[in-house]
Specification:
Elements (H helix, E strand, L loop, with lengths): L2 H21 L5 H9 L4 H8 L1 E9 L4 E3 L8 E6 L6 E7 L5 E7 L3 E5 L6 E7 L3 E7 L1
Antiparallel strand pairs: 1-8, 2-7, 3-6, 3-8, 4-5, 4-7
Length: about 140
C-alpha cells in the first residue's frame, strides 16, 4: 500500500471523526474550529508527522535503532547519502516482537509501511558501513 493510500485512509478516518464531533450536541465551537483546521493535505501531513528516531550518523554492520511503540505509525524509512548501501527497515509488534513488512535493499531511500491494527515500533538495521538516518511517520 502506498504512502498516499495510507495517508488518504488516515485523512478519511480523521474527516469522519471531525464530522461526528461537529454533529454532537456536546461539541462546542472550539472543537469544531480545531476540526476544520485539521483538514490538511496529505503532503503537509507527511511533512509534519515525520519523526527522526536515528539522526544522521556513521552506521556500521549490525548497528540498529528503534522508535517508541505506537499504534499510529504509517511508514518507516532509512535514508543514506547515496545508494548501494545494504540496510533493512521493519516494524516490530509489541506483543510478540515479530518483524512485519520488513524490507532490505540498497536504494538511498528504503521505505516500508506499518501493518493495520496493533502497536508497533519502527526499526532499522545497517549491514554495511555508511552515513544515514532513520525516520518514521
Amino acid at each position: 500500500m502506498s504512502a498516499s493510500t495510507n495517508c488518504a485512509a488516515f485523512l478519511d478516518r480523521l474527516h469522519r471523526e471531525v464530522d461526528a464531533l461537529e454533529e454532537s450536541e456536546a461539541a462546542d465551537e472550539t472543537i469544531r474550529d480545531r476540526g476544520r483546521r485539521a483538514r490538511v493535505s496529505p503532503d503537509l501531513l507527511h511533512g509534519l508527522a515525520a519523526y527522526q528516531y536515528a539522526p544522521p550518523r556513521q552506521w556500521s554492520p549490525g548497528a540498529s535503532a528503534g522508535s517508541t511503540y505506537s499504534p499510529n505509525w504509517l511508514a518507516n524509512y532509512f535514508m543514506t547519502y547515496g545508494s548501494g548501501y545494504d540496510k533493512t527497515v521493519t516494524f516490530i509488534r509489541n506483543t510478540n516482537y515479530g518483524w512485519y513488512n520488513t524490507k532490505r535493499g540498497t536504494a538511498d531511500y528504503l521505505e516500508t509501511y506499518a501493518p493495520f491494527g496493533g502497536t508497533y515500533k519502527a526499526h532499522c538495521v545497517a549491514h554495511t558501513w555508511f552515513w544515514g538516518s532513520c525516520n518514521v511517520r
